[in-house]
Every structure is written in C-alpha cells, then in structure tokens.
Design a protein that fits this description.
about 90 residues; alpha/beta; Rossmann fold; 3 strands
C-alpha cells in the first residue's frame, strides 16, 4: 500500500471538474488507495423559505445535483479503483 489509504474527492459537479477527477484517480492508482467522493448540499441559503413544501422541492433539486455530480465521478474513474460516494449537508468550503 502507498502513502495514502483514501483520497477524499469533494465535488460540486462544475464544468472542468473532469481534470480533478482524473488527477484523484491517478493519485489513488499510484498509492493503491480508495477514493471517497463527497458532495455537500448547501442548504443554508434556503433556510428562510416560508413553506415546508417549498423546502422539500428545493431539497429534491439540490439532492439531484449531488447525485449527478457523484455519478460523474463514478463514471470517470477506472473500474479497478474502489470508489465510494457520499452526500452531506452543510456549508461547502
């Protein structure tokens, strides 16, 4: 095993992120490491919505964006790499 056990790959699914995914995959391959892709749902901007139904709709859209971003990571990584994906709620840094 190499220097790293797990490569943390935070993703927002933005354009041009494919290069970052490729680099994380290369580092994981060199160090025989796993990849943990993380998408953070930033719900802080929507805390003042007047109705619960509004929040549920916004949350569904945000979750959908996260799922799309994480699927992009899975599709782009080599099959021989172990890739886990997870979503968290908070403020992305």
């Amino acid at each position: 095993m190499g220097l790293y056990d797990t490569i943390l790959l935070p993703t927002d699914g933005s354009a041009g992120f494919q290069r970052v995914i490729d680099h994380a995959g290369e580092v994981a391959r060199v160090h025989d490491a796993d990849v943990l892709a993380l998408y953070v749902v930033d719900a802080s901007s929507y805390t003042g919505l007047p109705m619960e139904a509004s929040w549920e709709g916004v949350r569904a859209v945000l979750d959908g964006k996260g799922e799309t971003a994480l699927r992009q990571v899975e599709r782009r990584m080599d099959d021989e790499l172990h890739v886990e994906t997870t979503t968290a709620e908070g403020r992305p840094s």
